[in-house]
Design brief:
The protein is built from eight helices and seven strands; from the N terminus they run βββαααβαβαααββα. With 223 residues, it is α/β, with parallel strands linked by helices.
Length: 223
């Protein structure tokens, strides 16, 4: 099962105040390596954006008014996340907005079965400390220089790096051991399969050419 790192930006903090989604981003990974499949939409919330929200993400009412509405991208979004493990930081917040939007257009809500809340993982690992995405990036020395405003796509990229560090595994592209870790829904790691790069043995001809090359280099440098 591939993973999805998901984040949203909104007009405010609660659907009870008629707040809506203005941006959705999802990055797909396999064994935490990006597959280069990305879902990213800026959305018309069909309401004004309060000044306090604009200061956070930089999306104004004027900028958003000609963007696509959620109902137009819902099927594409649901298809992108289907049957994948979804990792969200503070999942209850994003899910409340996503499920509210889905309810408005009479579509099934996203179930929590495949959801991992990285905030809960962080709180279990670092109780009593700040576990915001910014705080965790600073803890793990992850570069925050690009994060001038909250941006859902960038936050997905940062969350992937944070989550790998939370699980105490190396960046997947740097793993050269014979075993690779897969992460279950509780955030704990189980070894699921062996991973070994194929070893290509040189041919007799290649060995002979290499031997002759070394002889020439030796004569050139020492005679």
């Amino acid at each position: 099962m591939n993973e999805i790192f998901l984040d949203t930006e909104t007009t405010g903090l609660s659907v009870n105040n008629r707040d809506r989604i203005v941006e959705i981003a999802c990055i797909e990974t396999n064994e935490f390596l990006p597959t280069k499949k990305v879902f990213h939409k800026v959305i018309n919330p069909q309401r004004d954006v309060p000044e306090v929200a604009f200061k956070i993400h930089g999306f104004s009412t004027e900028f958003l008014k000609n963007k696509v509405t959620f109902d137009k991208i819902a099927d594409e979004f649901l298809d992108f996340i289907k049957n994948k493990k979804i990792i969200i930081h503070n999942a209850s917040f994003d899910l409340s907005f996503l499920n509210h939007e889905l309810k408005l257009i009479r579509k099934n809500e996203i179930k929590k079965d495949n959801i991992i809340d990285s905030l809960e993982v962080a709180r279990n690992k670092f109780p009593g400390t700040s576990n915001s995405l910014d705080a965790l990036c600073r803890r793990f020395n992850i570069d925050l220089s690009r994060r001038q405003k909250h941006n859902a796509l960038l936050d997905c990229e940062l969350l992937r790096e944070v989550y790998i560090n939370l699980l105490d595994i190396k960046e997947p592209k740097l793993i050269f051991s014979n075993e690779i870790q897969k992460i279950n829904s509780t955030g704990h790691s189980n070894i699921k399969k062996n991973y070994c790069k194929k070893i290509v043995e040189p041919t007799e001809e290649e060995l002979e050419l290499h031997k002759n090359f070394l002889k020439k280099e030796f004569k050139k440098n020492y005679y």
